[in-house]
Amino acid sequence: HVQLVESGGGSVQAGGSLRLSCGASGSIYGDACVGWLRQAPGKEREGVAAIDESGTSSYFDSAKGRFTISQDNAKKTSFLQMDMVKSDDAGMYYCVLKNVAWDRCWGALRDGDFEYWGQGTQVTVS
Predict the structure, then answer these.
(1) What single DSSP character describes residue 73?
(2) How many angstroms separate the CA atoms of 88 and 38, rounded?
(3) Predicted local confidence at residue 95, as pLDDT
(4) Which of 4, 23, 71, 109 has the most Cβ atoms closer than 10 angstroms to its Cβ?
């Protein structure tokens, strides 16, 4: 059983930066796929980035070159560094976790198929 809590959201000027954090409580065994999803009002949910326990990561096109996903396994924390934010980046950001290897991690992000979800942290852009 794992619980996820996001933090770091808030208001940011266009072109500015935010760093979102996702802290996990509970035991995490073996393979672990951690992702970030977002949803803007009136829009469908979309994947942002994912990373596995070994550090393998990938990004959706909207995030490439601007966002960086990272992790601190010892602290059971994932980070999403958001740079050069745009108005299109506004929305609710969710941290998600699934105990699968990388070959199933990216697919999970595309499908939104995760076992554990955080409550989300809101990002607004002015």
Answers:
(1) G
(2) 11
(3) 97
(4) 109
Give the pLDDT of residue 106. Answer: 87
User: What is the rounded CA–CA span in Å between residue 60 and residue 93?
Assistant: 14
Per the CB < 8 A criterion, the answer to whether 45 and 112 are in contact is: yes
Number of C-alpha atoms within 13 angstroms, CB side, residue 89?
32
Tell me what the mean pLDDT of segment 31-57 comes to.
95
Cα(37)–Cα(43) distance, rounded to whole angstroms? 13
- Mark out the alpha helices in the chain (DSSP H runs): 102-111
- pLDDT grade for 118, boundaries at 50, 70 and 90: very high
Q: How many other β-carbons are positioned within 10 Å of the β-carbon of residue 89?
A: 22
Q: 58, 42, 24: which is closest to 91 by C-alpha?
A: 42
Return all residues near 27 (Cβ < 8 A) that are at least 6 apart: 1, 2
Looking at residues 49-75, what average pLDDT do you find? 95
Per the CB < 8 A criterion, the answer to whether 8 and 19 are in contact is: yes
